[in-house]
Write a structure and sequence with these properties.
Length: 89
């Protein structure tokens, strides 16, 4: 039963992360670089907690932590929005 719950949790986090990245790429949301990195840190730490808490199901924690690392790295290499010359009026 624990494996089924962790599987559902991992799939839910994966879906939310994919929707978040799609929103970023399609420019629906504009979080700052720090906010994206903090989301990545939170996901990574949650993955570590799952690995420590459920040693027999450590693959789910690894997947969650890996998604957090990818999200944090994506935020690190994202260019901050720059102001255009016409915006300063």
């Amino acid at each position: 039963m624990i494996n089924f719950g962790l599987l559902l949790l991992t799939v839910l986090i994966l879906i939310v992360t994919v929707i978040f990245h799609a929103g970023l790429l399609l420019d629906f949301i504009r979080p700052s670089v720090l906010q994206i990195q903090l989301l990545g840190v939170h996901l990574t730490l949650f993955g570590i907690i799952v690995v420590v808490a459920f040693e027999s199901s450590s693959i789910y924690g690894f997947i969650i932590g890996f998604m957090g690392l990818i999200t944090g790295m994506f935020g690190s290499f994202r260019e901050p929005p720059t102001a255009k010359m016409g915006d300063k009026q």
